[in-house]
Each structure stands twice: as structure tokens, then as C-alpha cells.
TrEMBL record:
It is an enzyme of class 3 (hydrolase). This is Beta-glucosidase. The lineage of its organism: Bacteria, Bacillati, Actinomycetota, Actinomycetes, Kitasatosporales. Its EC number is 3.2.1.21. It holds the Pfam family Glyco_hydro_1. It catalyses: Hydrolysis of terminal, non-reducing beta-D-glucosyl residues with release of beta-D-glucose. It comes from Streptomyces solicathayae. Keywords: Carbohydrate metabolism, Cellulose degradation, Glycosidase, Hydrolase, Polysaccharide degradation. One of its GO terms (molecular function) is beta-glucosidase activity.
Length: 460
């Protein structure tokens, strides 16, 4: 095949997962409940009453899963460390058995020639810390920094890239404003406090990691940067997009990369908070330098002048952003009903490259939920996923051509898994998981991705 779209030498080809979504073994080896164990047991919160109790049983099948990664030819694997597995109550000493699991995982990866990329927080806050106030409570940020230090002490000689937080926007606004994610609170003012304390947690963790890690370690943060477009050039639509950008993107980007809060964000949230929970020195701590930025992208967001479509559900968007009308982008949709629009990924990468010169970018998640189907031979076909991944990788290639310093791409996800509020009913994996037998079957997309990695690019 002609390799029309070749990626730079050394490009990192990865896949991503998260602890609660794949591990299972929820009550084993001293692990205590996280907010997702609690939330998934509240009737009506997760479809079909699904929980992560067993998930893809990765905790017991890790060697088999690493063998799959090796067959795919991955150069990198992004996983998350379950906080309640390594520090059960969110305080105090480490739990050795939990750390041992991640040591074995990192060793297996290194043996297979795969770089371990670890995320410290992919949404599994120890339940005890939520009971003490959760992310709206300042002390949670200090607890997170202690946890980061303990993880770095145990795994610092093995993990190549450290990511502090995954998608703090989701943790703050889906967790504390719309309440569709754990802990399921619906208090927009609390969500704004949560966002600041997540930023602070990130900054304090960067300092803790720098102190504990050998120098070459890469320290990063992953944001779900919203690719927000105004519906039209009309000033009211442009203003609507600006409001979504303020509380969707710049609420994290500005403190982390520039040590400031966006002025328009403060105005847009004036009725909810005076931001007095931001103490002197916080923004300096939040803006501790990072070595790269992780970007998760699935779908664009189109904003128009309000009012929003009535949904009967609390909005994730606080203040003036909550009065914006979000319009679905046109075109085909995935099984999540998310529009397929690869240009949005190009827009996000080129924007960040322009705004953050000198900060390398990693696409830390990108992928799609689709139903797959097995033929009589047992092969699992997922043509829409192959098309989605191909188009989005082409957009990454185009962004690199336009000057964006994109160092790698991690698809979401290696395995079918617990898709949060959708439970096991939505499949993002390139490897099919039969949740009754726990049998793994690489889908067509897995074979396709192995070929892309082997060739270092896309055929056309
Ligand atoms: C991300 N939204 O979640 C997460 O990082 C993954 O754990 C997850 O499985 C994946 O994307 C697919 O959903 C998101 O509603 C969940 O805007 C919801 C939203 C965005 C990201």
C-alpha cells in the first residue's frame, strides 16, 4: 500500500484505558469504594444498573492484555492508577498490594517495549474524600498531591509519562453541576469550586512529581478541549461560543499555562460566585510548568444565542454559559449520538499549537462507540470505527503539516469497557470483550491500527 500520510519518526502510537472502566476486582486486595462505586449503585444513574465491579476483569487478565498490546505494536499505553487501590481512604500510607499491581503492569509493558503513560486521576475519587467535601473542598487538592508523591515514589523508575488529571471539565461539571457523573451533585457554584480545586490539585501534584521523579520524566495534564464554533458570524452566536470556551476550556488553560483566570469567566459567573476560594499564590502553584498537554477529542460543539433547548435535566454549564443554545453539528453520528467531525480535531490542535508555543501536544483520547458484529468465522467487524479513526488520524497529520507539535496519538479505547453512565451498552474498544466469558477478540479496527503502526502512517 502507498503510505500517503506518513507520521514523523518517533511518533507515539498508543491506546488508552482507565482503571474503573476496565479493572474490576473492586473489593480486592484492600481497595475501597470510589465515588463511581457509590454512584453506580444509585438506581437510575447508570444504564441497566451496570457497575465496574467486574468490568473487563483487567486486574486478573493484565498479562493477556499486555500481550494483545504487543501484538498490535503499540509504542505507548495510557492507563490510570486507581486512587482507592493504592491509598484506600485518600489519606495516609500506601497500600502495597495496589502499588504492586501497577508495578507489574509497568514491568510487563517495558518488557513488551511499550512506554507506560500513567494518569493519576481518571475520576475515581476515594468515597471518604467525597464525604469530607469532595472536589469543592480545598483539602482534596492537598490530598491529591500526597497521593501523587506516593505513586511517584513507587512507580517513578518505570512510568515514562505522568498525567495528573484526566478531563477536569467532566470531573467538575458532569460530577457537580449536571450530576450525570459521580458524585451526582447538581450545584453549579460547587462545580466552579471543584474546577479551581482540580487546577490546584494539578499544580500541587506537578510540584510533588518534580520533587519525587528522576529528571527525564514527562509531566502532563489531559483536557477535553472543546472544539467550539459559533453557529454563525452573528455577534450573539460568537458571544455564545466565547462563553462556552471560557468555562469549557480557558477555565483550565489560562490558570495552568498563564497563571490567570479569564476575566470574562469571572463576569459570566458573577451571580454564582465571587471566586474568593482562589487564594493568594494559588495561580502561581497551578501554573507550575508542564512538559506537554494531552488533548481528548471526540466531537465538536456548536454554540448559538440562547435560550437552550429544554432538556428537563440540570445543565453542566454554569452561569451565562448555561443560557447558550448548543446545536448538534450536522452529519453522521456515533452510537453515543455524537457527531463525527474530524475537522474539529484539526481545529483544536492548531489552536493550541498557536496559543501554547513550545508545549508539545499528545492526543490522549480519540475514538468512537459503534455496535460491532461477528461473522460466522468469529471475526468482529467495525467498519465505522475504522473510518472514524482513519479520518481523525488524517486530521492529526494535517495539523502536524500546519506546524502543530503533536508527538503521539492514543485511541480510546484498547478494550470495550464500562462507559460511565452508559454502562456496558456502548463499546469504544478496538478489542471486543464478551463480558460473560471475558473473551477478547481484536476487531477489524485493531488489525487496521496494527497496520498503521507498522507502516508509520495511513494509506490513501
Ligand atoms: C471521556 N461529554 O469521557 C473519558 O476520558 C473516557 O473515560 C470515556 O470513556 C470517553 O471519553 C468516552 O466517553 C467523556 O459528555 C465523557 O462531554 C463525556 C463527555 C466527554 C468525555
Amino acid at each position: 500500500m502507498n503510505i500517503a500520510l506518513k507520521f514523523p519518526a518517533g511518533f507515539r502510537w498508543g491506546a488508552a484505558t482507565a482503571a474503573y472502566q476496565i479493572e474490576g476486582a473492586a473489593a480486592e486486595d484492600g481497595r475501597t469504594p470510589s465515588i463511581w462505586d457509590t454512584f453506580s449503585r444509585v438506581p437510575g444513574r447508570v444504564r441497566n444498573g451496570d457497575t465496574g465491579d467486574i468490568a473487563a476483569d483487567h486486574y486478573h487478565r493484565m498479562p493477556e492484555d499486555v500481550a494483545l498490546m504487543r501484538e498490535l505494536g503499540l509504542t505507548d499505553y495510557r492507563f490510570s492508577i486507581g486512587w482507592p487501590r493504592v491509598q484506600p481512604t485518600g489519606r495516609g500510607p500506601a497500600l502495597q498490594k495496589g502499588l504492586d499491581f501497577y508495578r507489574r503492569l509497568a514491568d510487563a509493558l517495558l518488557d513488551a517495549g511499550i512506554r507506560p503513560v500513567a494518569t493519576l486521576y481518571h475520576w475515581d475519587l476515594p468515597q471518604e474524600l467525597e464525604e469530607a467535601g469532595g472536589w469543592p473542598h480545598r483539602d482534596t487538592a492537598e490530598r491529591f498531591a500526597e497521593y501523587a508523591a506516593l505513586a511517584a515514589d513507587a512507580l517513578g523508575d518505570r512510568v515514562v509519562t505522568w498525567t495528573t488529571l484526566n478531563e477536569p471539565w467532566c470531573a467538575a461539571f458532569l460530577g457537580y453541576s449536571s450530576g450525570v457523573h459521580a458524585p451526582g451533585r447538581t450545584d453549579p457554584a460547587a462545580a466552579l469550586r471543584a474546577a479551581h480545586h482540580l487546577n490546584l490539585a494539578h499544580g500541587r501534584a506537578v510540584a510533588a512529581l518534580r520533587a519525587a521523579l528522576p529528571t527525564p520524566a514527562e509531566i502532563s495534564l489531559t483536557l477535553n478541549v472543546h472544539a467550539v464554533r459559533p453557529l454563525s458570524d452573528a455577534p450573539a452566536d460568537v458571544a455564545a461560543a466565547r462563553r462556552i470556551d471560557a468555562v469549557g476550556n480557558r477555565i483550565f488553560l489560562d490558570p495552568v499555562f498563564h497563571g490567570r483566570l479569564p476575566a470574562d469567566l469571572i463576569e459570566d459567573t458573577a451571580g454564582l460566585t465571587d471566586w474568593s476560594f482562589v487564594h493568594d499564590g494559588d495561580l502561581r502553584a497551578v501554573s507550575a510548568p508542564v512538559d506537554s498537554l494531552g488533548v481528548n477529542y471526540y466531537s465538536p460543539t456548536v454554540a448559538a444565542a440562547g435560550p437552550p433547548e429544554p432538556s428537563g435535566e440540570p445543565s453542566p454549564w454554569p452561569g451565562a454559559a448555561g443560557r447558550v443554545r448548543l446545536v448538534p453539528a450536522p452529519g453522521p453520528r456515533t452510537a453515543m449520538d455524537w457527531p463525527v467531525d474530524a475537522d474539529g480535531l484539526y481545529e483544536v490542535l492548531t489552536r493550541l499549537s498557536g496559543e501554547l508555543p513550545g508545549t508539545p501536544l499528545l492526543v490522549t483520547e480519540n475514538g468512537a462507540a459503534y455496535d460491532d458484529y461477528a461473522d460466522p468465522s468469529g471475526a468482529v467487524h467495525d467498519p465505522e470505527r475504522v473510518a472514524y479513526l482513519d479520518a481523525h488520524l488524517a486530521a492529526v497529520h494535517r495539523a502536524i503539516g500546519a506546524g502543530a507539535d503533536v508527538r503521539g496519538y492514543f485511541l480510546w479505547s484498547l478494550l470495550d469497557n464500562f462507559e460511565w453512565a452508559y454502562g456496558y451498552g456502548r463499546r469504544f474498544g478496538i478489542v471486543h470483550v464478551d463480558f460473560a466469558s471475558q473473551r477478547r477478540t481484536p476487531k477489524d479496527s485493531a488489525h487496521w491500527y496494527a497496520g498503521v503502526i507498522a507502516r508509520g502512517g495511513l494509506g490513501r
